[in-house]
């Protein structure tokens, strides 16, 4: 029908408008939930999914749809419960097994995620997502042959989709295949030249490879494609700081990112780095203190290194400003 065609074409808002007045049957409720989710209205999507469950409490499809909505909202425990109930009801379990696998991977339960993806793949989960997600895990485990066998089942156009390419490239980088990751994103960018997320990923990979100029070029392209995107603003500012170039612009971009997204530790880290490169040690230290409150992992480690660098720079500045002791004063001491 028309609503289905619009969803396939990525026109979720129009699809939602088309099914709003079509009654309250189970199929229509599921269609409204799906269209609302794709349109970014997760509250509406949840209401429609729960209405579908009320209409047919023992149908797995309503529970699976609710699981997806809750997963998108970050309510992973509740999403897990919905998916598990959908698996219990069956018979088509692939979609829910895939959702459970994503949750397990998000929670770093990687062995369990691999098992769930395998079951979903064998159950023919939609669009092959279980297969490429399982392949990504195998790449991170350096089980290249298994990953290659899984990916061989996909056409190149599927592997070039931004979501797929970005996940696989991240796995290749973690598995030690940085050159493969760079090649994968390059090919995906050729297929999707106006996708900012691919350009940003290319920038991060170029930086990891030590190619700072190419990293900046990729990030500038992303900013051109998505000038209001927080990640693009932040990443360009970061590249400029690494190259010690155009620091006024870097400051403006980094400040703009923080204004849009709030005091996220990664964004404060970039702004503090820019401030320090500009010689604004006091402001950099204040930003570092704010960021350290919530920072974790690599961001926290970088902030601590940056703090040490800022304190050393501050100490050198104080010594440079202090009048030298007169010779007789030095002798008295």
What can you see in these coordinates?
The radius of gyration is 25 Å and the shape is globular. 41% of the residues are buried. The protein has helices at residues 2-8, 12-19, 26-38, 42-55, 60-72, 76-89, 94-106, 110-122, 129-140, 144-151, 156-159, 162-174, 178-191, 196-208, 212-225, 230-243, 247-261, 265-277, 281-292, 297-321, 327-332. The chain is 77% helix and 0% strand.
Tell me how many strands there are.
0
N→C terminal distance? 91 Å
Give the overall average pLDDT: 88
- In the predicted model, the low-confidence regions spanning at least 5 consecutive residues are 1-20, 325-333
- Any idea what the shape is? globular
Specify the structural class.
mainly alpha
- The percentage helix is over 70%
- Number of helix segments? 21
Largest sheet: none
Approximately what portion of the residues adopt beta-strand conformation?
under 5%
**Element-level helix/strand string:** HHHHHHHHHHHHHHHHHHHHH
Q: Rg from C-alpha positions?
A: 25 Å
């Amino acid at each position: 029908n028309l609503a289905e065609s619009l969803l396939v074409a990525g026109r979720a808002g129009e699809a939602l408008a088309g099914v709003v007045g079509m009654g309250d049957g189970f199929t229509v409720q599921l269609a409204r939930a799906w269209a609302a989710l794709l349109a970014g209205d997760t509250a509406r999507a949840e209401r429609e999914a729960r209405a579908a469950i009320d209409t047919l409490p023992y149908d797995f499809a309503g529970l699976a749809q609710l699981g997806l909505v809750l997963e998108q909202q970050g309510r992973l425990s509740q999403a897990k419960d919905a998916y598990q109930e959908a698996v219990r009801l069956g018979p088509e379990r692939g979609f829910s097994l895939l959702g459970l696998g994503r949750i397990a991977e998000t929670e770093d339960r990687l062995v369990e995620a691999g098992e769930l993806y395998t079951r979903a793949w064998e159950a023919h989960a939609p669009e092959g997502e279980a297969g490429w997600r399982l392949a990504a895990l195998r790449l991170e485990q350096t089980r290249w042959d298994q990953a290659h066998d899984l990916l061989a089942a996909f056409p190149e156009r599927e592997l070039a989709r931004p979501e797929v390419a970005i996940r696989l490239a991240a796995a290749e980088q973690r598995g030690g295949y940085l050159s493969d990751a760079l090649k994968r994103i390059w090919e995906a960018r050729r297929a999707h030249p106006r996708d900012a997320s691919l350009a940003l990923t290319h920038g991060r990979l170029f930086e990891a490879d030590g190619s700072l100029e190419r990293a900046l070029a990729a990030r500038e392209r992303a900013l051109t494609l998505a000038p209001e995107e927080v990640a693009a603003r932040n990443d360009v500012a970061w590249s400029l700081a690494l190259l010690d170039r155009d620091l006024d612009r870097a400051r403006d971009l980094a400040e703009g990112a923080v204004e849009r997204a709030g005091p996220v530790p990664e964004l404060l880290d970039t702004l503090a780095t820019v401030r320090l490169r500009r010689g604004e040690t006091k402001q950099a230290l204040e930003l570092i203190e704010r960021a350290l409150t919530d920072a974790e992992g690599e961001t926290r480690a970088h902030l601590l290194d940056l703090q040490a660098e800022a304190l050393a720079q501050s100490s050198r500045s104080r010594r440079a400003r202090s009048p030298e002791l007169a010779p007789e004063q030095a002798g008295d001491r």
